[in-house]
Amino acid sequence: MKQNIIIGVAVSVLLMAVACKKSFLAETPYSAYSPSTLTDSLGFEAASYGMYNQMSNFLTYADHQGWPDVWQVGTDIAFATQPEGIEVPYYNYTTLISTDAGALYTWQWAYKQINNANVIIANVEDPALKTISAADKASTDAEAKFFRAYSYNLLAECFGGVPLVSKPLTGPKTDFTRASLDDVNALCVSDLTFAAANLPDIEAVKTNATGKLYGRANKYMAMQLLAEVYLRMGKGDLAEQQTQAIINSNQFSLTSVRYGVKTALPGDAFSDMFQYGNQRRKQGNKEAIWVLEQENPSSVPGGNTGNAQQRRNWGAGYYNITGMAICDSLGGRGICRMRLSGWVLYGLYDATDMRNSPNNIRRLYWYNDNTKPATYGKPVAYVGADTVYKICPHTTKWYQYDPNDQFGFAMIKDFILMRLGETYLLQAEAQVMQNKTDAAAASINALRTRAHAPLVTASQMNLDFVLDERARELVGEENRRLTLMRTGTLVDRAIKYNSGTVVFPMSGLTKTNLLLPIPQQEINLNKDAVLQQNPGY
Asked: Angle at Cα 61 formed by Cα 35 and Cα 306, nearest 5°?
């Protein structure tokens, strides 16, 4: 998704702008491409790009810099070190109430994306539409239904049953009621089944002058999300059918040899996947199923939306130590708003596991400021309060350095949202759900073979082990909170593995927090019907 798609995103913001005055559930489209005028291929393309723009908004939101931490701290893998504010209720759970800013942004983001998708679906399914081919209608419809299902799956994982909106909103509506979770799931399954059947194969995506647009939706994205939905529904057999289809397609492979832009530098096959310049399929990453591509807006207008905070929040503030300077090999400028839990750092990995190598989890530092010859080249002592955020161990997956922007407020880096490594993990979870422990061990061992970790046996297979392996494989990249909420394990695992931290300890976590509160603002605006609050809030 290089220049043409990025510029299209910028155009779509103008063409598809949807007003948001009081509530995204009461939004009114004000645009040239409103539901009554979206009738040609240019309009549908602009509208489709708008969904990618909105997806980027979720990942790069920076009005609250602690946004990425909402989904990691207060789980089993991370704790807060320098909280900005929005993440506080997600470790101090007694403060997670119905006016929570994180829950509100999630709700509003999802319904805006749903309305974007509904505009496309309503127009492309209009029998009067004669200006595009049947094949283009089907693929456009499928792309929109993928994003609608993605948004409803997010809402279901966060809130349970929510209002179902399947047509564009063209005026205020104040009588929403919550649909059952079964009804929400049914819409997700229907949309994703259609998307999997009508989206292109990854090698049949649209092209432009630069080549294939691998950043656009493909059928395997729909299959992977459908597998997750089926797991949330307790249908392991159906989930396994989807993961098997992805694996057996032979379109993807686990990265097991070094490649790309930094092979002359220290690294390994796993760390190479997360180097900017290596993340996309056209750059050699054959493990990636979905990469949301980002460009530096200084060189590609519209190449980014917000100011992504992942590098700053995961990375260490090492440059605050005299004798340390901001540099590429340490990932640029981090501030460490969150730190990996002791369980991740000291209890999760086997000694030989590549995913725990210094290339993937940095633990040691050397003084690197050559203007300070007394310390230059010597190891930095790993002692005291500095280990909390200045020289803390951290994942390197979000490293990104721009020599023209050393302060680096925004991270300019692609987001690998789906990859084959997770497909195997979803498959193992589905197999455990069916008590197919031999098959589950084989799925896990596909990853452990790549990682040079000891192989496991069927007797070790249960949901907890699969969640442990997800942490080993996906730490820092998966939305850990959603995974633990989806599997109903947030309370037990967070308390077991992440209690009693030295700063900002977790407190008040109960089963109430397996769902988020319905935003009070939405309840108040919904004056003509009752929008039921989740229990305990």
From this structure: 80
pTM recorded for the entire structure: 0.93
Query: How many whole angstroms separate alpha carbon 41 and alpha carbon 18?
Result: 20
DSSP for 127-160, please give it. Answer: TT--SS-HHHHHHHHHHHHHHHHHHHHHHHHHHS
- CA 17-185-110 angle, 5° bins: 20
Plot region of 256 (φ>0 → left; ψ -120 to 50 → alpha; else → beta): alpha
Q: Taking phi first (over 0 means left), then psi (-120 to 50 degrees means alpha), and beta for anything else, what does residue 211 get?
A: left
User: How far is Cα 514 from Cα 511, in angstroms, rounded to an integer?
Assistant: 5
Low-confidence ranges of the chain (pLDDT < 50): 1-34, 36
pLDDT tens digits along 133-186: 999 999 999 999 999 999 999 999 999 999 999 999 988 999 999 999 999 999
Identify any residues that bridge with 208 across adjacent strands, giving them in sequence order.
211
DSSP helix/strand/coil, 364: coil
For residue 93, the tally of other CB atoms under 10 A from its CB is 18
Distance from CA of residue 324 to its chain's centroid? 32
Strands (E), 236-354: 288-292, 338-340
Distance CA 310, CA 328 (A): 16
Q: Is 38 left (phi over 0), alpha (psi -120 to 50) or beta?
A: beta
**Which string of b and e fits 46-78 if b means at least 16 CB within 10 Å?**
bbbbbbbbbbbbbbbbbebbbbbbbbbbbbbbb
Q: What is the pLDDT of residues 460-488, one digit of tens each?
A: 999 999 999 999 999 999 999 999 999 99
